[in-house]
Fold each of these.
Amino acid sequence: MTGLDTGEAPDPVPGVRADGDGPDGRMHDIAPSLRKDPPQIPEDAMDVRIHFDRTSLWRAGWILVVVVALAAFGRWVLDDAGTVIFTLVMSLLASIAMEPAVSRLGRSMRRGLATGIVMLGVLLFSIVFLISFGRLLGEQLATFAKSIPQLIADLTAWANERFGLKLDYTTLVETFGVTSSTIANAAQGLAGGLIGVIGAIVSTAGSLLTFSFFTFYFSADGPRLRRWVARLVPPRRQQVFVVAWDLAVAKTGGYISARLVLATICGSLAAVFMLIIGMDYWLALGIWTGLVAQFVPTIGTYIAIALPVVIGLIGDEPWQGLAVLAFALVYQQVENVTLEPRISAEAVDMHPAVSFGAVMFGAALFGVAGAFVAVPMAALMLALFEIYSNKYELLPHIAEPQPGEARWREDGDDPDGPGGAPREPVRRARRMTIPRPTGRRRHTPA
């Protein structure tokens, strides 16, 4: 018999009740003496006290002082040496833009000689252009500046007549700030023609010499500079540095050189066409068309052609505006199909919205120079993110393209689509073959 039946024997385990034990022999309760009540927190312990370490406090204060001092020093450097820094940055970008031509010439001659030949070619082209068209360009710009009020008046009258508007010429002139004194000053500055251009060049001779000096050495000693900077990076990070350097050269150099070539072709053909049809300001409008159409992404083509079309429509012969519009439409198709794929096949390939946003952001921060280099810099950052980020397989219902969706080609895409059905034309971007860092793998769902 057990101690439970007689009441004399103690429990087998102190503090454990055996009543209700079933066939499985489990115990069902714990004696009150073995239960632990939650600890009671004294009332005086409810107050929270924070003790500051004087060492940490002094360290934080000194860090704040150093940060403020560095910010003040950086602002002082930018204010007093901003021009020099800007010249260095533009020289570096110019050397990167010359890199494709210098690399090709460097295969058969010394790199310094190749750099000198490229820079001499650019200088000779600039001199020939200024001698041939400098005075004409200055006269056209001055005449165009003087005719701005009349152009606004003609445009206002044309809009009121065609669309039944009630625009006031005086209000428009005051809104855009096109006063007689402003126009006179602008025309006086532009009327000098070639003499004015030469005077401006002479006045900035120091900056041009500095720019040329640094551009030459950045290009001629590019490989040496790359090795010197790589020595400052730990070995495990040198691969990342090499990838970033090569991408910067490929993206920036390819973009700027391709845009310059396309701008030259576009501007030259537009100027020749306007000259043939007898349009005023043909040289200035041709240069405007080439530069704006190529260096302003997405909407640059429309902005570039809008100005000559409007000038032609409100002129004495409105058919000239329609002719320029027809030329722009035909040329744009020819460029998209034949010229641009061959010239800029290895240059920047980015979504149009990203390109336009990068230009607006760069222009807001650094003006025209920022807008000029914003697209290749954005492409560089996106390319680095593409290389050093992990990508995952998409779920089938997410990967399926939506009806009518414009699709960009990605790595691993089947060019013929599911079932061999041809897809809509997609942009085929040539990408640099760059090894991914070791130890990084793409994850796929199990």
Amino acid sequence: VFALILWILGIVMAGALAMRVGEKFNVTGFSYPFVQRDSLLLLPEFFSVPIEQGYRNQRLSIEIAMPTGKTVEIDKSFNAYLKDVPLY
């Protein structure tokens, strides 16, 4: 059985304190449930953090690796979240 890999998704979650100090951060319990429908990758607008971790400026980075020659179409509703990413 052969499967065509359309993309590879990497998700990095961290709190501001861990990023500043460089220590490991406990990401257990973080939730970011994305959905794949055929060639579409649907990403939720928000992610959840366990309440016992409190709010410490948590961040979520998503890296999508595509095969050479393939293109990505990002819905314009994501523009507000992609301030530092050149899209067009």
Amino acid sequence: MAPGKHTYKKSSASSSQTSLTPCQYCTQTFSTRGIKSHEASCKNKWEKKKQSREFAEIAANVMKAQRKAHKDKQCLCNDKIQ
């Protein structure tokens, strides 16, 4: 063997026999070794998306209420422009 060259032994379990676990947030499958770190980062990502979605829904409801209130006043805003 030449200096600096390394040979690595393959794992005794073949890749088809490796146990894969699905992530509870995105359903991607990972080895039992990698699932913990993936789920931790995936959980944060999904929580941020959830918060963003909730904020967008609240903002849409506020805008809808403001438009309704504006129409209910029978505002003459367009008449003032002319």
Amino acid sequence: MDISTAISLYIKDTPYKSWDLAQCLRQLTVNYQNLTSKNKPEIIDELRSQLSFLSTHQSICQKGRKKALQLCENVANFFESKEAMTFFEGVDVKVRNQRCMPFDQYMYNEDQLGSQGLENARIGLLKAKSSLYQSEVKIAFVDDELSAISSGVEAKPTVLTREQDRPSDVSEGMEKDQGDDEKEEDEEEEEETPAPREKTSDCYKCLFQQSERKIPAWWRIADLTSRSELDIPDEYFYALQVELTSRRNPKLSQSAETLLVTLEKLPQQELVDVARSFYKDGSESLLKRLSMLRVSKKASAEEQLKACILGVELATSSEQIEVLPDLKTLKSDDREVIWIFKVLAKMLENVEYGITHDHCSERDVDVLYDSVFFEILRDVVNVHFGEICSRASRDRKQHTIDKLSDGSRVDWLFCHRAYGEGSKWGREFGLMENASIKPDNQGKIAGDTIKGEVNLRDMLKALEHSFPEEGVSDVIDQARKKILLPGIFFSAWNLRIVVAALLDHSWVGVIDSGSFTIPTKVEDLHMAVRCCRVLLEVKVRYSRNFGFRLRTRNQTWRKSELRKKKEKVDFGTRGAWQISSEAKEARELGYRRRKQYIARLFFSFLRINVAMRL
């Protein structure tokens, strides 16, 4: 195992509180002459991704953040050192003489080799360091124990503006914003820095003037994902990110969690055998096989890193047995259990057929992968495929300046017919957009991502308009704050799941929920287990946040809650909301059952009288 793989595995599998980052740094410093042009971007990309995650995680302690800051600073100094610069300049000359491109898979061109690639790495590390420093300041706004980090900066309460989605007339909208800004300037002349609300308004006005429709903020979308490039106050969006992150932690069912933990502990060859035997033996035989399996304990990431640094092989012992979960309680006919085995078998089959190495179209991916992935979602939502026109997007476009009659088309649409009476597809609750197979097609990937986020925003707006006014019901007001709509984006064999939530009446927040890479080799089949976990989290989020049950939708609301809402809530013109229809269904069901009960009593009484007379 090379040093870059060992460090990557160590950072990924070891809790951040136990990171021995100084050991990793010393190994890089000592062996920098042995770093090849392939190792360097791998290490840099891994450190940048881990540091970016570290900077946005709201529960990381002060010690962990300081470790990350120190590591980032040391690595940046190392790559800026004279020795490293001389080494990579030599690599630059060597590569140009050989006329090869070792950076092609990381999208480096011929002008970005050697020293130029080092400069890009240095800039990226400095950005990560800046992000980490900002996280130190931002956490001080919400954590009293870390107030010393903020260097005397006081947190100010942030209030979101309640503006319309888009002004019907550009000039009127701009004049209104300018008038509001003049009033705010008169009231706050003594303040040196504007409030976050003013910065948000200024940012939106600037984007509106430039017509930057490819920027999420133009659509009033607070993109809080790892790919975001926000030019809006950090403390403002950090509070929103903490709020959204606290909503996105679903818990899987016990059967699915038990099986996934077992599959994660299996060695590679055993997992391949399980996937290959599914179509032949079935789920019942596989569960019996896994329950009797004895697996040798794997070496931890820290042990693998030490063995790589010392240059020795790992000592494996067959006496150390991995403790597997008890599979006797699992049922072989459980839909989630069968689906997990089916995903493993399908991914292995596609790899063995060489599909991942062929030139595949977007529809090939939809048929060979997405159709299998979304089978588990059919229990909770209706799934439509094939450039479906979003009705929520079409309704929004009909009220805009250009008044386009057609809405945005998406590859996969998740909806629920029972909650959208009168609509063709029902109420829309999520989507999947297939961007591109090619990793270098960044333009299409960015465009489809923006289109998907805007569609999620339109769905949330349509759902918001179907609710009664705030204050009518405390239950509804609390449920409104917990709504998360998932959006799935595919690009270059990687699926990224984001969730969108309403922040107020005008802004929508988008945050990462999970991601996984489709395995392209048999050795990477463990990635399929990660795939199953992420998609099951999407299903759980649907089930718990909305109470979706296709087969038991009449039991979504308890009778006591229906009775209270029927007596106290006056929907008026908003009678199309789902509670009114559910109340009617429950009332009609109660009438039918009452009539059946009375009829049953009557005939029983009649039979008794006839028997007595005879």
